[in-house]
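Cross-check.
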Amino acid sequence: MFVLSEPTDAVIAEFLRKAAKSTFSYTDVGATRGETPSGFNLDHNRVMIGRGPDDFEQAKDAIRSWKMFDFDWVKLVRNDTPIEEGRNVAMIVRHFGFYSMSSARIVYVIDEPCCFGFAYGTLAEHVEMGEERFSVEFDPETEEVWYDLLAFSRPNALVAKLGYPVSRYLQRSFVRDSKAAMLRAVNSNNIEPCQNRER
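Predicted model, tokenized:
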């Protein structure tokens, strides 16, 4: 959904109400657990955000608080949504003088001793279609803490299809700013800036 001005609380509430009744916009729900489907853009990015068990706990708290969306051109509604399967959220993105609103639903949650996170999938109202996994990992041997993003996507809305290069630019910008947000959230002084990977 595209609008020319920032959506009001009433517009957002109505959008979320419709999202609750919506279905996924793609068929391979849960595919970020294993083999991702063909015909989609695949993006896999990692950045080291801390070191040691305390930083891992901070990283898990950052995921629970949706800190990976904590930057100025994206607003997550609602950022107090629990990390639970079936929960819906909306993203409001400001770009090039207008706004887009998209909705997603949590597909699964990861809660293991050395890995925490979740994946959400796009709903029918999302400008893209696909799935994205957000997770933090702790390596007991090196004590490194990593933030990992894995996504497969392709344009859904006509505007996104027509503006495909812009869509890909925004996706890359999201990855960059999301990694920076998680670094800020963990706030560790033990990070080497070169520890940043894209796949």
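The longest strand covers residues 98-112. Helices lie at 9-20, 53-64, 158-162, 164-186. Passed to J.P. for a second look.
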